[in-house]
Design a protein that fits this description.
With 285 residues, this protein is α+β, with helices and mostly antiparallel strands. The protein has helices at residues 22-26, 44-58, 66-80, 126-131, 154-165, 208-219, 231-235, 268-281, and strands at residues 2-5, 8-11, 29-37, 40-41, 87-95, 114-121, 133-139, 170-175, 178-182, 186-191, 194-197, 224-225, 240-245, 249-256, 259-260. It is built from 8 helices and 15 strands. Bound molecules: pyridoxal-5'-phosphate.
Amino acid sequence: MLVYLNGDYVPRERALIPVDDRGFLFGDGIYEVTRVVRGRPFEAGRHARRLRRGVDGLRIDLPTGMEDELTAVAERLIAENGLGDGEATVYMQVTRGAVAPRTHQFPPAGTRPTVYVGAQRFAPPDAVRERGAAVVTYPDIRWGRCDLKTVNLLPNVLAKQAAVDAGAFEGVFVRDGTVTEGAQTTVFAVLDDTLLTHPLGERILPSVTREVVLELAAELGITTYEEAFTIDELRGAATEAFLASTTADVMPAVSVDGAPIGDGRPGAMTRTLGDALARRLGRGD
Ligand SMILES: Cc1ncc(COP(=O)(O)O)c(C=O)c1O
């Protein structure tokens, strides 16, 4: 498997990062995951824009336009690794680079960021989608800039592990009684036939799939509000809920902390939006 590291295409086992890399030492970097269906990166432009917003937000000195060059890098990796059919994902990471000695403040001007891109086969969780996913709640103990896709993912790791430990699919963050988002997904709920999801801002990631789902909902005439809902509403009044992300697509959420959401089965609006997204992805019929 070939990967890209700092301008070179090298076998994965030869792609090595120095121990001084600030991604390793501080989690000082950002990343992107893009879905690839039949060789085509889905919404590559949106991912590139979010990557640019991330490096700018962290003041990482990535050359102008590099985010678009990385889409071309991804396309080359897809082709050279024989991933032009079926499903795959592309992972990109940019860190503030590697400099000794270790200092908290930024390294000297001119330090080159570390840039890594890899592509791999991907098997979507379609079996879970059929029956619907269990989710568990987890306190949202994250920092104040959840809108930046940084590699600092410890709360997300802990939330996801709590889900796995409970035999569930996803950990859902709750802050002051409000559902913010999942460990790796956006959360949507249906209340009074209306689709709700947490508004953009510093509490959630501006998810690419969230944006696409909102577009699809508008096309389908579904009334949608970017408005937060509470965990009590998810447990009580919600008739449906689903998760959305690059790797989960639209994933029905059918229980929370062991209690059913709605009738405990994937809902009609969820299925409609899931089918619409599958068509957009090029995986529909
Ligand atoms: C915290 C969080 N929210 C939402 C998402 C979904 O984002 P996207 O649709 O861009 O994959 C992710 C994806 O990794 C995430 O980590």
